[in-house]
Amino acid sequence: MFIIEKANHRSITPFVTFFLILIWIFVFFTNVFRLDLFQASKEVDLHSLVTNIFFHKSFWEILINCIYFYMYGDNIEDVLGHFLFIIVLVFLSIFVNLSYVLLNWNSTLPILGASGVVSGILGMYIVFFPKVKTTLITKKFMFSDLPVVTSLIFWVPYQFIVMFWEMQANETAYVFYSHVVGFMLGFSLAHCFLFFGWRDRHKESIRFSTGNLKTVLCPSCSAPKVIPSYGRYKCSSCESEYYFDRKGSRILF
């Protein structure tokens, strides 16, 4: 099951997002070609809880993580800024992996992959951008122009079901466990930032960046648009239709 983002405006270049994706790819292929430049640690310490997110078990795992992180990470970095975004990534990495270690203390397998961190970013995304349009893809169906909240109504229960199924089958279940824990942690963390006004300040910075006080943001993708008066408008980025009046902008289609 995949959730593909359609359009979401950003105001800065997401250097941290791009750089981390490049590191993942570089580390993965050095291990594929057995260059032995980097090794995942089996020890449980602060260093391994952070650095083991740079390692991936398979090509499909790193491909999916890179795609998801590129789609959703850039907008979270846009809201938080580069430095705070790095801190959030480290926080997610430590606590997602630590929670798994505490529940699987006797496991001798190293914790690999960034699935928990990426899911944490997705959890933050739904809080900051609940109306962004997405395409939900399953094995048999594809649904277009769904708000990300609607898509995640299907995605989250699916992660729980697979996690419990794998646990019953006595498998590691790490990937789907990290999805669930990471998502819940990111979801909670985003509400803290929302409470302290990070998203509101981000919206205002986009509005003022145009230099025109008549700028209105699309309620779906936050793309700025200078409008002459109240009325109905269509976003050129995500093609959403919305209405703007004294109460603000509200999405129509």
UniProtKB/TrEMBL annotation:
<keyword id="KW-0378">Hydrolase</keyword>
<feature type="domain" description="Peptidase S54 rhomboid">
    <location>
        <begin position="46"/>
        <end position="193"/>
    </location>
</feature>
<keyword id="KW-1133">Transmembrane helix</keyword>
<dbReference type="GO" id="GO:0016020">
    <property type="term" value="C:membrane"/>
</dbReference>
<feature type="transmembrane region" description="Helical">
    <location>
        <begin position="109"/>
        <end position="129"/>
    </location>
</feature>
<feature type="transmembrane region" description="Helical">
    <location>
        <begin position="174"/>
        <end position="198"/>
    </location>
</feature>
<protein>
    <submittedName>
        <fullName>Rhomboid family intramembrane serine protease</fullName>
    </submittedName>
</protein>
<feature type="transmembrane region" description="Helical">
    <location>
        <begin position="12"/>
        <end position="33"/>
    </location>
</feature>
<keyword id="KW-0472">Membrane</keyword>
<keyword id="KW-0645">Protease</keyword>
<dbReference type="InterPro" id="IPR035952">
    <property type="entry name" value="Rhomboid-like_sf"/>
</dbReference>
<dbReference type="GO" id="GO:0004252">
    <property type="term" value="F:serine-type endopeptidase activity"/>
</dbReference>
<dbReference type="GO" id="GO:0006508">
    <property type="term" value="P:proteolysis"/>
</dbReference>
<feature type="transmembrane region" description="Helical">
    <location>
        <begin position="53"/>
        <end position="71"/>
    </location>
</feature>
<feature type="transmembrane region" description="Helical">
    <location>
        <begin position="141"/>
        <end position="162"/>
    </location>
</feature>
<keyword id="KW-0812">Transmembrane</keyword>
<feature type="transmembrane region" description="Helical">
    <location>
        <begin position="83"/>
        <end position="103"/>
    </location>
</feature>
<dbReference type="InterPro" id="IPR022764">
    <property type="entry name" value="Peptidase_S54_rhomboid_dom"/>
</dbReference>
<dbReference type="Pfam" id="PF01694">
    <property type="entry name" value="Rhomboid"/>
</dbReference>
